[in-house]
Amino acid sequence: MPHYRRRTLQNSFMKISPKLLLYLFFSVGLTMLAASLLSLGQYENALETALRDDLHTHAVTLQIALEEDYAEERIADAQKLIDRLRQNSEIYAVLLFDADGKLLAESKPMSDNTLRYPPELAAVIATRKWSETARSIDGKKYASIILPMQTGGKLRGAFEIIKPLSLIETDVFKARVYWFVTTILLMAIIFAIVFFVLQRSVIAPINALLSATEAVGKGDFAHHVKTSSRNDEIGQLAAKFNRMADSLNEQSLANRAETENRLRLEREIQHNEQLVIVGRMAAGVAHELGAPLNVIDARAEQLLNKPDIAAEKHERNLQIIRSNVARITHLVRQLLNLARPFNIHPVQINLLESINTALEQIESAAEKSKVSIELSVAENIVLAADPNYLQQVWLNIFINALDEMPDGGTLSIAAAPAANSFIVTEITDTGIGISPENMVRLFDPFFTTKDIGKGTGLGLPIAGRIIEEHGGRITAKNHGVGGAVFSVHLPLNQPKREG
């Protein structure tokens, strides 16, 4: 695996790990927080309920005492009892009313008439049922109970007892502090536990898998992940990863062996092909050189054995020897041209003019073979090529076409633009065409279907090399109605050559 790919995986994991940690932490923390808040609320409600129960107990006790005083007509004792309640710090105030709702006594003076004459008082007197409510005095909350007083079935009045809710504020504050500290400690413990478990059970195994993935990506298929004794999903993933690495290792070894065997076979095939090519070239050279050498040897033998022959015959033998030496020299020069790179000097040339120049050189041969020439090339096609080497290409193809039409025919030449800024020149003859077994050998050196002495088999290979040096290619095929078609692909602009 490339280095940047591993860094991407690690960055992704470093994003997932905190997210997973925070997700678990906040999920558990919020659940615990909700439960704690619910518990705290229940505790505060319990404190307030206890205060109201205590207030109710005081009210009932006071009701019994006041009703006894009224039953025995000890009204003054009732007033004294109200006054003594001032000393009770848990009771804010007690108000005593007659049967008409008139205030008779109060343990603490009230400045507000709304408080001195509570709106619930009339309903208590009318229904003779007690009423419990909450009051706000000077911005503070209080619990209040109004109870009727009856003696012998007769309503004697009512009283209100008020108790501050601030009595439980200290307990509520302590409970909230305790809840806050406990929650913080528990969340810290949960975070530590989650981090430890995540690090041990998730982060470390995934890091091991990432390292193993990187090693396998680099080709180290023998690298394994330590699975220990884990039987969870990550352990199963590690085990399957190891089995995958083993399988890849086996496949890699098998592929390596197969590749080495294929390379060995290819080298053997290439070697055999090279031997075939060398043998074919050697046979071609021997064949092409054998005939002129035999002629040279025969003529030289005549000159040696018959020194007194006529001067004309002596001169004729020397001319024949020189002619065959020139033939051998031409063959050697062609071999050298085929072996070494061509020194191409491309210039802007007109394609039609280049083809016409080559046609002028075969004009007499075409007339002799009764071959007509059809030319269809635009006058404005200009391309970058070496004029001399391109002439050699046209001549080699044209001469091959004439040789295929000894009894006459038509040589057609057409050119047209093609894709990728190429010009394709098609040279079509009406000869017998190319047999399938010869099609694959057309551009092999020394391959020829001509009679001995009529061809070296180097014309098309040299033409192919010249076009390749120009950045193009030559292809051949049989025409649908008979004959062969050679297509010369040349770029409009000569490619830049390195060096």
Strand order of the largest sheet: 2-1-5-4-3
N-to-C order of helices and strands: HHEEHHEEEHHHEHEEHEEHHEE
Number of strands: 12
For the CA atoms, what is the radius of gyration? 59 Å
Q: Which geometry do the CA atoms define?
A: rod-shaped
As a percent range, the share of strand residues is: 15-25%
> Portion of residues in helices?
55-70%
Regarding quaternary structure, what we see is: single chain
Written account of the structure:
The structure is a single chain. By secondary structure, the chain is an alpha+beta fold. It has helices at 3-71, 75-84, 113-116, 121-127, 169-217, 233-305, 311-339, 351-368, 387-403, 436-439, 459-469, and strands at residues 93-98, 103-106, 131-137, 140-151, 154-164, 347-350, 371-376, 382-385, 409-418, 422-428, 473-478, 484-491. A 5-stranded antiparallel sheet has the order 2-1-5-4-3, with helices on both faces. Strands 7-9-10-12-11 form a 5-stranded mixed sheet. A two-stranded antiparallel ribbon has the order 6-8. Helix 1 (3-71) packs antiparallel against helix 5 and helix 5 (169-217) packs parallel to helix 6. The chain starts with a helix and ends in an 8-residue tail after the last strand.
